[in-house]
Each structure stands twice: as C-alpha cells, then as structure tokens.
Please model this.
Amino acid sequence: MRAATALCVGLAALAIQCASAAAAQPLSECRLPGLRHSVLCGVVQRPLDPALPTGAHIDVRYVVVPALARRKLPDPVFMLAGGPGQSAIDIAPPTLALFSRLNNRRDIVYVDQRGTGRSAPLACADTRHESLAAQADPNRPFEQLMACQAVLLKLPYVHAPADLGLFTTAIAMQDLDAVRRQLGAARINLVGVSYGTRAALEYQRQFPAAVRRSVLDAVAPPDMALPASFSTDGQAAWDALLRDCEHDAACLRRFPSLRTDWSALLKSLPKPATATPPSGGVAEPFQMTREMLLGAVRGALYSPAVAAALPAAVTQAAAGRYEGLIGLGALLTSGKAIPPAMGMHFSVVCAEDIASLADTGRASPNPPGADFGTDQAALYERVCARWPRGAVPAAFYRVGPSASPTLLFSGGLDPVTPPRHGERIAKALGASARHVVVPNAGHGVMAIGCARDVVYRFIDAADDRDAIAVDATCLSAIPRPPAFQPPGLQNLPSKADK
Model:
C-alpha cells in the first residue's frame, strides 16, 4: 500500500447520473502516487447510522480507473480490500496491474470502506517502528488500543462511543451499493481479498441482483470467528512447513534438527536477548517472549517465499541470534506500507467475530494450536470487552446459494484463510461456485503465476457456464520455494558452546 495524498485535484465537467433518488455527485480528475495516468475521484455522503437518515453523515470516498476502450462494458469491477482496516484506494497502484486486461473495457473501482483511508478513518498511531523492548511488552498492545480508542472518540464524526459500532461490514456494504447507484451501474463484478471476501459475501447477501460475478481470494467468511481461527490455521501452516522440510532431502540436510530447535526455543522463553532491529541502528536489549516469537513466525508464513527463510531463522534463534526471525516477521509490514486502520479493525472484529465465539452453532471449529495457543485470542477478547459493539443481523452469518457465478481461491499454505474456509463457503454458495485450491500458495493467490489471467477469463466470459468452467490448471504446478540457507549459517555455535 502507498500513501494516497491529494486525491482529488480539479473539477470534472460532467456529473455521473445516479440510479437512485439521491442527487448525483460529480467525479473529479485526480492523481494517485504510483499511477502514471490520472483517475477519477468521487464521494458519496452516507448516514453514519442508517437508522437515522437525517442524522450525522460521513463521506465515503472512492476512485474510478476508467476503461481504456471508448466503448466500454457497463459492469465495472469493484476491488474490496482486506484487513479489516485496509484502504482500497491505497492499494490501487500496486494492484491495478492485476486488472490490466479487465481495465481495457471495464472501469475498476476502489472504495475506501467506512473507517478506512479517507472515509471517516478510525486509524491508530503507527507503532511498527517502536523499540524491540516496547514490542516485547505483553501489555503494550492493549494499552495502545485503549489510547487509540480515546483519540477516536474525539473525532468530529464520532459523537458517542456507540458510534464506533457503526462501522460493521453490513453497513459498509450499503455504502458500497450507494457508490454503485451513483455510478449508474446496474450490475458490478466483485473482487475481494481476505477480509474483502467477507465484504463481498455480505454485499451478495444484501444485493444479489446487483452482482454479475464475484472473485473471492483467500476466503474469510463471516463465521470463521477471528481470532480463534488464527491459532488453528497458523499452527496448521507451521506444522506443514516442519513436515515439508523433513520430507525434502535438501532442507533436511541443511536443518536436521529444526523441529528439536523449535521446541527448545519455545521452552526457553521468555529470556533476555539482544538484537539489532529491522530498521537498523545499534543492537538493543529486550525480553524475547513467546508471543513475539509466534508473531514473527505467523507474519512470515503469509508468503511462502518469505517462509522459505524460516528454517534458517529458527535455527539462528535457537543459537541466540534473533535478527533473522524478527526481520522476517516485520518484512510484510515494513517500508512504505500504510498500516490498516486498527480502530475500524476492532469495530468489525468485536462486533462480528468475538460475539460469535460463544455461539457454537455459528462459529467454525477452531481448536487452539499446540504452539500458538490462545494468547492472541485473549488480547482480542480483552480489547473487545472495552470496545463498543455494533449490531450484526443473524442473516449475516448464513451464506446461502448464489445466483451469480463465484470463483473462490485458497492457498494450501495460507496461515490465515486456508482451504477449509473456502471449501465450506463454496458448498454453501452451491452450483454457481467454483473453488480453486493452489497447493503451494500462501495468503492471496491473484498475484501469482497465471491467476490474473484466470480472473480475467472468469469475469470476461459472456456465458455464466463458461465462467464457472474456466481452466485454472496452470496454478497447480506452482512449487513451494525451497528452504533458504544464508551464508555463514554453518558457522553458528553449537548448543554445547552456549
């Protein structure tokens, strides 16, 4: 994600005709950092509380990347971001290449969901560059989130604590439909990634007639009961890596005691440590904790290319060198990436996931992982006990048959949204759904191999039957990256030397 500043510059001469009774709003020409050509920016005013249409309103902002062809097709593609908390507009520059063929004849639309980006954001302070000692403090995340909540309650569009409960997926999808109507599109194509798949499923539930096709990449259904599933799925992904290493001759030769090193490392924590932070500088003393270790492993598992370095990093950590492990855990959130709006994240999760944990008839089975345990779930439960919760309709958790074709992607190595979730939702959606499992993919499939071409053919097919039958066999040959061995690993001190 990149910063999206100065989004709207200048005025457009023409207004977009609304398909609803609401007054039409013009689109304005604007630029996004990272895109060579100008795009169109729009805004739709929405009631903060749909039950009070004459009450306070918020601006929901969006960007349209116009189709290149003069005679474009009438059904745009709406990109739904992940998180929850990610700004769709911020990910427009790095993701637009995935839609280059679709963009020839279709508009691509990025809507900042309420609570994210420039749509009444519920953002917290960026804490990614804190000292290692601060990151290792087990009470620090809770304290930071409580401090963030106090700041959010002073925002001009948050008039009471209960307003933080008005940023749920169900309400946000009503905003999305207002954008569709403002653009005058009778039907749209949905592309959701991670949490964006939950949003797409909810839009499908509320507005089935407005959906032409849906692509759900890394399926995060409404009943997955975050964060309990984090432990279950993270453990499964880590166990798979250990098992695959033991069955790969090269990995086993390089890391013959990986499982033993991992077990010994876990049992040794917490303990004092010293390491240079990923941002560089001088080595810092800190307390290496179990939570810090597991967080680093979980973060690296998102991408198989990054996870390939975990055997070496764990081996180094077992020998007292933690830089590799800490660096891997921070890799996917470092650089210029904008962190998700954590206020919106907790408004969604506290209302939709934590509330469902006690309902065994609704929540999917999520036994805690042997290593990953319940610590992360405990943090969410502690925060959500103090976070205002919005109302969620019971129908939100029930995914029924879909009349429109849906293509679901799952990565077999995904530590967050593995195939078990996609399988369940594909079955619920019925005959119009197609579930494609990419065995050696991690969290998110669309950016690897031939996936973007599969997505293009699925959405572009004129006939629904042809869309469902799209050939995706090209994805099955993608291999797991081999374990990485950095130079000098063989020179680590043995356990007898420590």
